Amino acid sequence: MVTAVHAAYASFLPNLWKSLREQTHPRWTWWVEIDGDADEVTEVLSGCGAALDPRVRVGAHGGAPLGPAIVRNLALHRGRGRYVQTADADDELEPEALSLLVAALAEHPGTGFALGQARDLLPDGRLRTVPLPLPPGLLERGTLAAHWTTTEEAYRVPVHPAGAMYVRELVTLLGGWQAAEGMEDTALLMAASAATPGLLLPQATLRYRRHADQRSERNRSSSVEGLQVRGVRSRVAGLLALPPWSG
Questions:
Q1: What digits encode the pLDDT tens for the residues 37-46?
Q2: Buried (b) or exposed (e) across 96-118, using 16+ Cβ within 10 A?
Q3: Is there a contact between 197 and 188 (Cβ–Cβ < 8 Å)?
């Protein structure tokens, strides 16, 4: 599992770490890649016990922050597992998330990614289910891009991209996470969907924390976002014109 984290989000890591310890899937490695100053993050990881677990690997590049896409790609290339699961530092996984996603990909070898439902984790601890416009099951190539609404008045991603699990080979082939401000997860998921079928599970696998300091809710520029959407859609069109990725 890959998590990019900077000092401002360090305080959320014990909750994510707790959700990892509660996973029903027995084998996983958590690659924590620190963006920028490492002191506060390493202190939190030591304080909650994560730093002592051999399944936790911590990387730090030092220097100025590089952004989540680059930092995730660093963690991606440190690992060697067949599957790659992302989890933002402020989110949590449902207890059966890894078991469900690994089993789904193993049972459908022609697919390159799987994701489940996401529930909003509200500041008061309540979990809120968000209905999706797509039914669970096989997602044919291009399905997600076709249901991705990108008008300025009604922007909506048909599934939550932050909790997707990918076949590592596919992520590497696509160049990892795209350098897109606030759209790193969406860009990769749309590219993956254009390259290969995927799976949408009926079960919840991600708890998406809602809070005032969410990076995705700040500094949104409609002009930049529009150009990024154009770039992602151009990439999708190019991938759909190629033969499907077969693993």
A1: 999 999 999 9
A2: bbbbbbbebbeeeeebbbbbbbb
A3: no
Q: Is residue 42 within a helix (H) or strand (E), and if so which, with residue range?
A: helix 39-47
- The tokens for 111 are 């697919």
- The residue behind tokens 């990387």 is 59
Order of all β-strands in the sheet with 30-34: 2-5, 30-34, 56-60
Among 38-52, 98-112, 204-218, the range scoring the smallest mean pLDDT is 204-218
pTM (2 d.p.): 0.93
Cβ atoms of 186 and 229 within 8 Å: the answer is no
- Cα–Cα distance measured from residue 85 to residue 163, given in angstroms and rounded to the nearest whole number: 7
How many angstroms separate the Cα of 100 from the Cα of each of 70, 77, 143, 204, 213? 28, 24, 22, 10, 30
Q: How confident is the model at residue 246 (pLDDT cuts 50, 70, 90)?
A: confident
Which distant-in-sequence residues (6+ apart) come within 8 Å of 91 by Cβ? 16, 121, 162, 163, 206, 207, 208, 209
Give the integer Cα–Cα distance in Å for 153 and 168. 35
